[in-house]
What we know:
mainly alpha; 0% strand
Amino acid sequence: xxxxxxxxxxxxxxxxxxxxxxxxxxxxxxxxxHFHFSTPLVRPYISIFGELxxxxxxxxxxxxxxxxxxxxxxxxxxxxWMPLDYHLAFRACIWFLRDRAGLCGTALNxxxxxxxxxxxxxxxxxxxxxxxxxxDFILRLNSYQLGPDLLNIDVKRAPKLLKKCIxxxxxxxxAARNECQIGHVVHPVWDTCYWGRDNYTKFxxxxxxxxxxxxxxxxxxxxxxxRAESSCCRFGCSEDEDIKHLLFDCPxxxxxxxxxxxxxxxxxxxxxxxxxLTDHRIQIDIEKFLHTVLC
Length: 295
């Protein structure tokens, strides 16, 4: 199954099952008053949600075709996905805004306005599983001032702005993590990302994404893992063989590198690691390079 087909199947058939009724419990996952990645999971949810989150990450790695040892957060950044709890919170907020705009039917509309307008009963409002926590989350996202007020914006524009605010918050988490150093070079910002279905070969596509996550089997990495006697380049160089050496320095890959460089010049981008591993216009070219050099 192709990566794009796996992505489609997951989002159409599996994710809706996880999302079902999640608005009622997702804001109970975190300890403390506010739903934030820095607050720990509460004890009753640690094992249950942990198992669900591991499944979510397994699906993400499978879609990219990267090793199971790949960093979870780096895999999500590469895919342009939110963490599972934030994705479910995002979906809950969309429902809240749709309900608030009266777009979910008479019964739901009467229910939310009956609850929303009676916030003077603070205890009852605080005990709601959905309304208060969605509102608190949206108000915090509003505080980033990245666009119009989320509570007054057209509902059709809300998903895009909500994602923008959520990824702004998640970038604090990504910046604080020191795992997958090459991932920070390739993806300095955590944002929405879309990957096409075209590839040179399935294995070349695996190499392409594995490079971005620091999991490609170069001699330097295999030597660190105790699976190679030397870290020196397979082509006889005296330098350690990592992906940067193969792409930018190795004299034995110069002809392939010059072809890549010319391709980058034609489309008007600089010959950098970030561009090579993120720009869709040269994805087939870099996959062909990796397949030729590493296979």
